[in-house]
Amino acid sequence: MLKTLLTGLALSLPVAAMAQEPAAKPQAPAAEGAEPAPRPEPAKPAATKAAPAEPAEAGTPDTQAPATAASPAPAEQPAEAAQKPAEKPAPFLPNLFDVTVVDTWDTLNVRQAPDGQAKVIATLPATAKGIELVARDPSGKWGKVNSGEQTGWVALRFLKQQTGVWQAAALPQSLRCAGTEPFWSLGATKSGLTFAEPDRPDRALQLRKVMDRGIDGEPTRGLIAGDDKGRVTAFLRPEQCSDGMSDRAFALAVSVILDGAETPSRMLMGCCSIAR
């Protein structure tokens, strides 16, 4: 009987153990199933979906960028460009000026240098007209003029430019050119030009053609003239020039070519002035 009881007890223990194992196994799959649960970290895609919010912010600067391009800066540039044409350019040289803004009893000082403290070497009357300006200082406030056989500087604020000195296809009536070695001269007249040399009769030339560069007020000129003895061709160009004999300054250089049946072909060099 006892043997039978022990045998039954021994058999019941494995059965109980077997009954408990299936209960433990479901826990293992439950634990394993808990690991995949983190996979729903598709919460990360949710963060990725939130990223489109950044393009929305980036789009805000994009919409602002055109606003920056349409800022007043571009509008200011045309305004400045519109002002530039309003600035009157400095006249070409040489050119003629009249003394102005000086009391009739006063005179305009001609100074040794472009400086208000420089030595006064000459004066111009308040009514002086047709003064030839041959150069400017870097500041644009002083102009070089001839006074007698010397040059000096005057304050440009006291000078007013004459109009119509250099007209298209024409010469100033005050034009005078000259050279040395040999001495010669060429001057404008109402009827044309006059060419002169020492010990020879003056030649009255018919002015056949005056050419310019097509720039308003620019003094470069090409001349063709002649008479029954031959032809005279001249080229005037704005350039600092010296006659080699005086301290006067010139702003026009000239090359003259003479040729013809009764005249040996030759070229002469010199300087020109339009002072009156």
From TrEMBL:
Q: Compositional bias (Low complexity) spans?
A: 19-36, 44-84
Query: Any keyword Isomerase?
Result: no
Q: Which Gene3D superfamilies match?
A: SH3 Domains
Tell me one Pfam family matched here.
Answer: SH3_3
Where do the segments described as Disordered lie? 19-92
* Entry keywords, A to Z: Signal
Source taxon at top rank: Bacteria
Q: Does the keyword Signal apply?
A: yes
Signal peptide location in the record? 1-19
Residue ranges constituting the SH3b domain according to the UniProt record: 106-159
Q: What is this protein called?
A: Peptide-binding protein
Q: Which organism is it from?
A: Paracoccus yeei
Phylogenetic lineage: Bacteria, Pseudomonadati, Pseudomonadota, Alphaproteobacteria, Rhodobacterales
